[in-house]
Specification:
Radius of gyration: 19 Å
Strand content: under 5%
Shape: elongated
Number of domains: 1
Helix content: over 70%
Bound molecules: protoporphyrin IX containing FE
Number of strands: 0
Number of helices: 5
Structural class: mainly alpha
Length: 187
């Protein structure tokens, strides 16, 4: 169970910090940092690493039968933190141009992040242990029906959020390959 929303505060803090550095670099250079130059490129790489961690770590911990390292709720909080900060860095990386495939990948990043926010909301409606295991509720019949419906919505949400994430990474790898080839190695 997510018992606090401190990961949201940490993400907000990181957004302000990274946004501040971005504004400073922009002010000093007198232009929007380009995606292929040092600062913009670093934002792309770091943001993408955070997104990869978001995609992989929580799922690994959730499915591992051998690892009991760390509470599931802490892993989910880390998932949410990196899932908010990574895409934020990617948006700053884009230099606010959304042409072609890279533009589509950006849109997919936005959709996966927004769907994550909705998922977090539904997730917290279902009572769980700190290890994320759903627990029954001794409440009345009406409330049990609400809970059953919420679980169904969460299951549907999973079937949207997970394939979207996979499609996003597939498209992102094409963008990275093409961008590195044309904008970095050919120069
Ligand atoms: C989900 C991850 C990413 C998204 C959504 C994304 C999105 C974008 C966008 C929208 C642009 C601007 C395209 C334009 O000028 O019209 C761009 C440019 C670029 N990106 Fe990414 N990017 C991502 C990750 C990366 C990573 C990890 C790298 C490097 C390893 C990278 C390297 C580049 C380069 C070199 C350019 C400049 C291309 C040029 O000047 O023609 N991107 N990216
Ligand atoms: C780069 C962005 C993101 C990616 C690639 C991503 C990917 C994933 C994946 C693959 C899962 C399935 C885990 C599993 O069952 O194995 C998942 C679950 C989840 N994600 Fe994300 N996510 C992202 C961002 C977010 C954000 C921003 C939030 C919340 C603000 C969020 C909240 C959740 C929640 C609540 C679950 C369900 C946990 C569960 O049922 O055990 N995600 N995400």
């Amino acid at each position: 169970m997510l018992r606090s929303n401190k990961e949201l505060w940490w993400a907000l803090f990181a957004w302000v910090l990274i946004g501040g550095i971005y504004a400073l670099v922009m002010f000093m250079a007198g232009k929007i940092p380009a995606a292929s130059e040092l600062f913009g490129h670093s934002l792309g790489i770091l943001g993408f690493v955070l997104m990869m961690l978001t995609e992989v770590l929580y799922s690994l911990r959730k499915r591992s039968r051998f690892t009991t390292w760390g509470k599931m709720s802490s892993w989910l909080q880390f998932h949410i933190f990196t899932g908010l900060v990574g895409p934020f860095m990617i948006f700053l990386h884009t230099s606010w141009k959304f042409n072609g495939l890279a533009g589509v990948v950006t849109l997919m990043t936005l959709i996966v992040t927004l769907s994550g926010i909705i998922g977090r909301y539904i997730y917290t409606r279902i009572p769980r242990t700190v290890d994320g295991i759903e627990i029954g509720t001794p409440l009345g019949e009406a409330q049990a029906t609400v809970l059953a419906n919420t679980r169904r919505v969460m299951a549907i949400w999973h079937t949207i959020h997970i394939p979207l994430g996979m499609a996003l990474f597939t498209a992102a790898f094409y963008h990275i390959g093409a961008a590195l080839y044309y904008a970095t190695f050919l120069k």
